[in-house]
Amino acid sequence: MDTPLRNVKPNIVQSIRAYGVKDLQAAAEQLGHHFLYANLAKAQSKQDVLELIAAQYTLPSHFGKNFDALYDCMTDLVHKSGPQTGFIVVLEHIPAHAKFDKEAREQLLDIFRDTADYWSDRKIPFRCFYSFSVARASKGEAPIEVENEEPMPTDKLLDVSPMALRMSSPFNAGYWLAAA
């Protein structure tokens, strides 16, 4: 049987381009890793991004909805809950506009890079795949053409329920208590 993601470093944050969400979910299941999925297509601001991640990753209700709290939830809180097998994380359609500018996007990805480093120190795989939202032309306008630019697969929003994609959330206390 082929080992999924064998050519992907065990602790990395990278573009989702080469992978489909369902393939990543299947890889997580086969590897026995947690699968966390967040579709951020409706986010307009940093607060929207954090609220969507909190809801779709089922972060605890005391989550502070800031980048430091996100890092704490992805690392310390999960680490204290018991042994971990690994993580495959998807951040799909990260906003790319003035209210969530390049600096905010880099800060968000830095949180996941730092999280990957944290889990790497503990010899636990943490792979994060992301995509950016693509600006769309208004109806009646022609799309902007960019030379030598390959089309992005993110121009189609997937209608995938986060509940259907999430296997077991490491933030689900009931899951961990039952497993103990």
Short overview:
The chain has 180 residues and is α/β, with parallel strands linked by helices. It is built from six helices and four strands. Residues 34-130 form the Barstar (barnase inhibitor) domain.
Written account of the structure:
The chain has a four-stranded parallel beta sheet, with helices on both faces. It has a domain of 121 residues: 2-Layer Sandwich (Barnase, Chain D), CATH 3.30.370. The radius of gyration is 17 Å and the shape is globular. It starts with 10 loop residues before the first strand and ends with a helix. Helix 4 links the parallel strand 3 and strand 4. It is α/β, with parallel strands linked by helices and 180 residues long. The chain is built from six helices and four strands, in the order βαβααβαβαα. Helix 3 packs parallel to helix 4. The chain is 37% helix and 14% strand.
Output the CATH homologous superfamily of the domain at 10-130.
Barstar-like
Under CATH, the topology of the domain at 10-130 can be stated as: Barnase, Chain D
For the largest beta-sheet, the strand count, sense and barrel status come to: 4 strands, parallel
Low-confidence stretches: 136-168
Number of helices: 6
Strand content: 5-15%
- Determine the mean pLDDT: 79
| Global structural class | alpha/beta
Give me the oligomer status.
Answer: single chain
Helix-strand string: EHEHHEHEHH
Q: Which shape, going by the Cα principal axes?
A: globular
CATH class division of the domain at 10-130: Alpha Beta
Number of strands: 4
What's the Cα radius of gyration?
Answer: 17 Å
CATH architecture classification of the domain at 10-130: 2-Layer Sandwich
The helix fraction, in percent, is: 25-40%
Kindly report how far apart the N and C termini lie: 30 Å
Q: Strands across the major sheet, in which order?
A: 1-4-3-2
Protein name: Barstar family protein
Domain Barstar (barnase inhibitor): 34-130
InterPro entries: Barstar, Barstar-like_sf
Family: Belongs to the barstar family.
